[in-house]
């Protein structure tokens, strides 16, 4: 089991910045990838950014160039630096971890979600 605790959400004006943090604990050795998802009311949950255990990253086209995902292995913490925020970035943001058990068997762990609201 992986426990994920998020922090850093809040209210910000358009053009501003926020930094989200996700602290992982528990069975973290088998995590193969972590990522940030977001979900706005009436919309599907979408992948915002992901990072593999090897450090490769992927971003949604809508945030590329504005958001940066990173990990601090010493602190078991993942970050999402969000710059040049737009009102359409408003959503609940979720931390995710995907872990391998054996062979191709895997499971997902989720944080509780944190609200990001961008005004104007």
Offer a few descriptive terms:
single chain, 120 residues, mainly beta, 7-stranded mixed β-sheet
What does the average pLDDT come to? Answer: 96
- The overall strand count is 11
Q: How would a textbook summarize the main sheet?
A: 7 strands, mixed
Instruction: Look at the helices and sheets and give the structural class.
Output: mainly beta
| Global Rg | 14 Å
Tell the overall outline: elongated
Order of helices and strands: EEEEEEEEEEE
Number of helices: 0
Strand content: over 45%
Weakly predicted, low-confidence segments: none
Kindly, what is the distance between the CA atoms of the first and last residues, rounded to a whole number of angstroms? Answer: 40 Å
Description:
The protein has 120 residues and is mostly beta strands. The chain contains no helices and 11 strands. It has strands at residues 2-7, 10-13, 18-26, 31-39, 46-52, 57-59, 67-72, 77-82, 91-100, 106-110, 114-119. Strands 2, 4, 5, 6, 9, 10 and 11 form a 7-stranded mixed sheet that branches. It has a 4-stranded antiparallel sheet with strand order 1-3-8-7, with no helix packed on it. The radius of gyration is 14 Å and the shape is elongated.
Secondary-structure blueprint:
Layout: E1 2-7, E2 10-13, E3 18-26, E4 31-39, E5 46-52, E6 57-59, E7 67-72, E8 77-82, E9 91-100, E10 106-110, E11 114-119
Parallel strand pairs: 2-11
Antiparallel strand pairs: 1-3, 3-8, 4-5, 4-9, 5-6, 7-8, 9-10, 9-11
């Amino acid at each position: 089991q992986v426990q994920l605790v998020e922090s850093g959400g809040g209210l910000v004006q358009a053009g501003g910045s926020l930094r989200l943090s996700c602290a992982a604990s528990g069975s973290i050795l088998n995590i193969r990838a972590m990522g940030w998802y977001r979900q706005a009311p009436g919309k599907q949950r979408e992948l915002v950014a992901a990072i593999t255990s090897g450090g490769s990253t992927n971003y949604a086209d809508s945030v590329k160039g504005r958001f940066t995902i990173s990990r601090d292995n010493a602190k078991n913490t993942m970050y999402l630096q969000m710059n040049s925020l737009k009102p359409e970035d408003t959503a609940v943001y979720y931390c995710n971890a995907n872990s391998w058990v054996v062979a191709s068997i895997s499971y997902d762990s989720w944080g509780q979600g944190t609200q990001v609201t961008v005004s104007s």
